[in-house]
Design brief:
single chain; 770 residues; alpha/beta; Transcription Regulator spoIIAA; Beta-carbonic Anhydrase, Chain A; six-stranded mixed sheet; four-stranded mixed sheet; Carbonic_anhydrase; lyase; carbonic anhydrase; EC 4.2.1.1
Length: 770
């Protein structure tokens, strides 16, 4: 044991050396070229779907890369025109014209900057994912329904319903070479990611959109196919036009600004979060990302470009290509500028059906089965479906509003709608009425119907698993209990939740509807806290053990069964936990552990008598834990007000088995009387003699464990660590032994990297399993 205060060990943080700027450029330049090759065809296709000039897609891609890439808060995110805004932009172009749409983009960008400066970045993430995914899926379906007509040689209709109605005619009509090119693009995009592993990696690494567009265009040029091609109508520099303010319709203009700003912000933030998960190195500054996106949209609108967002397709490509910093996104924008100025003539050779095929695949990929399965598990699939139908059948804003309203209604239903079930008795037992959730006035009609199923005069147990009971529900339930009792029946109210009928009867100073802290969950509270109320309702009282067993089978067995099923063949506990037999010390509660975590050994006074003449049960447990279970941690836990320490200190153990057992605490008493450092520190803090001795006893038992041959060997080999704990019952606080003192066992102070010192077994932090 050490005699001085020991500082908490600080784990060394030997992380990787940050890369130099040369190393970053060596990774960022190739990555930027890959993203550039992906971005060009996508930008052109999105411009087509948005009914915007094709040059607007290239301008937005360049601005998104350079401006948003340099100013944004997500270093590896790549911004540009996104499929998620195509329907909105197309509607704005049709309503206002291109010049006013650019003005809307400018104003939306300014609003995004305001969002960022007012630190509302994370607030945008409060929108239900079901609404966001439904919005994107609706946009995807709209794109697919419209662009399929272009692939098939026809023209896109005015709305989704018209597109669906006209599709059979298009499918039955004769198709020319344009359709073959579009279908070839769709097939290549779908099959390219599924190439066999035998194909060289550099071949599989070619971006599929670029390859599809290039091959189809080369085929159209080489064969001189009579197909409609892209018309630029001038250079990119000539396409730069200032935005135009609307002539009236200011309310619709403001709605357009708000719609673009919100959708672009939400999509950018969700993409930034997804990119963070991909590379896992640093977290994005979401408020700064909004500022960068806003600056990009402002400049893009001023130059005649499309609105921009963070785009997950380009961003994921950037991460997969090995980008290390924001230089990759900026450089990809530079390459787009060079391409737009020097090689724009090549773009005019691309057939329109080729871009339409590209858009069909992009739109289809916005509808994700994985999202549907996840939302179905969470009960939010109806929100997703309603949002899709609203976007496809009406417009994007209506669909989003419909989805948000339904999401709020579902949340409200979960908050105020209780589950009420009536269970018939299997034999002569009572009927069970199980009420779960918040029992409020909307549930009273169902509650009345369910209670009406209980026969008059029958014994009933009402299980209230509630966290709130409003005035109306309280009155109705109490009236039924009294009425059923007058009819010869018996009612026992078994309250599992934190606020129920009996809480109201005994509450002081408040009426029904008041909220107050309820009892802790039953698995944390003693029998007396939750069985006493039920026993007031029925006599004679049941045996508490049997009552507890019934409660376990009714509420906990099904929940814990999957874990126990995995542990049925073997156990692999994390620690041997030696503690006192005191009923107030509950190891699994104190350590937030469950089945299979602790190999627990309990005795009076948490002693470790490991000598040749001593009781061998502790030694056998230690050897089994080390040699068979291979636990990495041995814990000794003492507690305040220990009766064993009181008897050992006063010599009142007697001559029987208890006295002989407490002889094992003699070393602890002697070292306490000799002024053990742990006792000195505890005394200075006002600890009683018994509590001082309990703390010293923990350190002494750790020393004894360290002298055991099996433990000493494991310590030398670094296979085990020793941990000393002390539980103060009055405050329900746990402390850990550090050197010559017990310190609060908070994670903030005790990191997982703190290591045990073999020669000083008490000097260790409680480990945090990883």
């Amino acid at each position: 044991m050490t005699t001085g205060a020991t500082a908490l060990p600080v784990p060394e943080r030997d992380g990787p050396t940050p890369p130099t700027w040369r190393e970053r450029l060596r990774a960022d330049v190739p990555a930027s070229l890959v993203v550039f090759l992906v971005a060009v065809p996508l930008s052109l296709g999105i411009a087509v779907a948005s009914d915007a000039p094709l040059t607007a897609g290239l301008i937005a891609a360049a601005v998104g890369g350079i401006v948003a890439g340099a100013l944004g808060g997500s270093p590896l995110q790549v911004s540009g025109p996104a499929a998620g805004l195509t329907v909105v932009v197309a509607d704005l172009v049709g309503r206002f014209g291109w010049g006013v749409t650019c003005a809307i983009t400018v104003a939306a960008g300014v609003l995004q900057v305001v969002f960022g400066l007012t630190r509302t970045g994370r607030a945008a993430l409060a929108i239900s994912p079901a609404v966001v995914h439904g919005m994107l899926a609706g946009i995807g379906l709209t794109i697919v329904l419209g662009q399929l007509h272009v692939v098939l040689g026809g023209e896109q209709q005015d709305d989704a319903i018209a597109n669906v109605l006209a599709l059979p005619h298009q499918l039955l009509a004769l198709h020319g070479p344009a359709t073959l090119l579009g279908l070839a693009v769709v097939a290549l995009l779908l099959l390219w990611p599924r190439l066999p592993r035998g194909v060289p990696g550099w071949v599989r690494g070619i971006p599929a959109p670029l390859l599809a567009v290039v091959l189809a265009t080369v085929a159209a040029v080489a064969l001189a196919l009579p197909v409609e091609r892209v018309e630029i109508g001038g250079s990119v520099l000539e396409a730069i036009t200032p935005p135009v303010l609307p002539d009236g319709q200011w309310a619709a203009f403001a709605v357009g600004v708000l719609t673009i700003a919100i959708i672009a912000s939400v999509e950018s933030l969700l993409s930034a979060v997804a990119v963070d998960r991909m590379h896992g190195e640093q977290r994005s500054d979401l408020d700064r990302e909004l500022i960068g996106q806003g600056a990009g949209n402002t400049l893009s609108g001023l130059l005649g470009g499309l609105p921009i967002t963070g785009v997950i397709v380009r961003s994921s490509t950037n991460v997969a290509a090995g980008a290390r910093s924001r230089a990759s996104a900026v450089l990809h924008g530079v390459w787009i500028v060079v391409f737009s100025v020097a090689l724009l003539g090549l773009v005019q050779q691309i057939p329109m059906a080729v871009l339409a095929g590209l858009l069909v695949v992009i739109g289809a990929r916005l509808v994700k089965l994985a999202h549907m399965r996840e939302l179905h598990r969470h009960g939010e699939l109806p929100v997703y479906v309603v949002t899709i139908l609203g976007v496809v059948l009406t417009d994007l804003l209506t669909g989003v509003v419909a989805g948000l309203v339904l999401a709020l209604l579902l949340v409200l239903r979960r908050v105020v709608w209780a589950s009420i079930e009536v269970q018939e008795p299997a034999g002569d037992g009572p009927w069970h009425v199980v009420v779960e959730g918040a029992l409020c006035f909307p549930s009273i009609p169902r509650l009345a119907r369910r209670l009406g199923q209980v026969p008059a005069g029958a014994p009933v147990v009402v299980d209230l698993v509630t966290d709130y009971l409003d005035h109306a529900a309280f009155d109705h339930l109490q009236e039924w209990v009294e009425r059923h009792g007058r009819g010869g029946g018996t009612v026992r109210v078994d309250e599992v939740g934190s606020m129920g009928l009996l809480d109201r009867r005994t509450a002081s100073g408040g009426g029904p509807g008041d909220r107050r802290p309820g009892p802790v969950p039953r698995f944390l509270s003693p029998w007396s806290a939750w069985q006493a109320a039920a026993q007031r309702e029925t006599e004679p009282a049941d045996d508490p053990i049997l009552t507890g067993l019934r409660e376990y089978h009714r509420r906990a067995a099904g929940l814990v069964a999957p874990y126990l099923s995995d542990l049925a063949e073997r156990q692999s506990p994390y620690a041997l936990f030696l503690t006192c037999s005191d009923s107030r010390v509950v190891p699994n509660v104190l350590t937030s552990s469950g089945p299979g975590d602790l190999f627990t050994v309990r005795n009076v006074g948490n002693l470790a008598p490991l000598g040749t003449d001593a009781d061998s049960s502790v030694g056998a447990s230690v050897e089994y834990a080390l040699d068979v279970l291979e636990v990495p941690t041995l814990v000794v836990c003492g507690h305040s007000g220990c009766g064993a320490m009181t008897a050992a200190l006063r010599g009142t153990g007697g001559d029987g088995a208890l006295g002989r057992w407490l002889d094992g605490a003699g070393e602890s008493v002697a070292r306490w009387r000799a002024g053990h450092p742990v006792a000195t520190v505890a005394a200075a803090r006002g600890g009683s003699d018994v509590d001082q001795l309990a703390m010293v006893n923990v350190a002494v038992q750790l020393d004894r464990l360290a002298r055991h041959p099996a433990v000493a060997r494991a310590l030398d080999e670094g296979r085990v660590r020793l941990v000393g704990l002390y539980f103060d019952i009055a405050t329900a606080r746990m402390s850990v032994l550090e050197g010559d003192r017990f310190v609060p066992a908070s994670r903030d102070r005790l990191g997982a990297g703190a290591a045990a010192t073999p020669g000083d077994p008490a000097t260790t932090a409680f480990p945090i399993p990883t």
